[in-house]
# Entry
Amino acid sequence: MKRLDLIISERELDTIISALEKAEVPGYTITKHATGRGPQTIVSEDMELTGLGANAHVIVFCEENILEKVKSNLGSTLSYYGGVAYVSDATEL
# Structure
């Protein structure tokens, strides 16, 4: 089992969800208004008020064969809009 973590702009959430559903992921979790600090910028709740938007954290658990479809569907979207995606191993308790 794999875990995919995506940090993306909330403005692009519909595009990301469409790509995930096209890849037939079994499900996902979305946390809106994600804040934090990256290597180059800080994302704060104040950014939402300025119109720059906030980030969302999307978590997907799926088998590796599904993950390959997700990579194919998300690659161009992340390149165009930005955001980060990380994959790790996951073990159910």
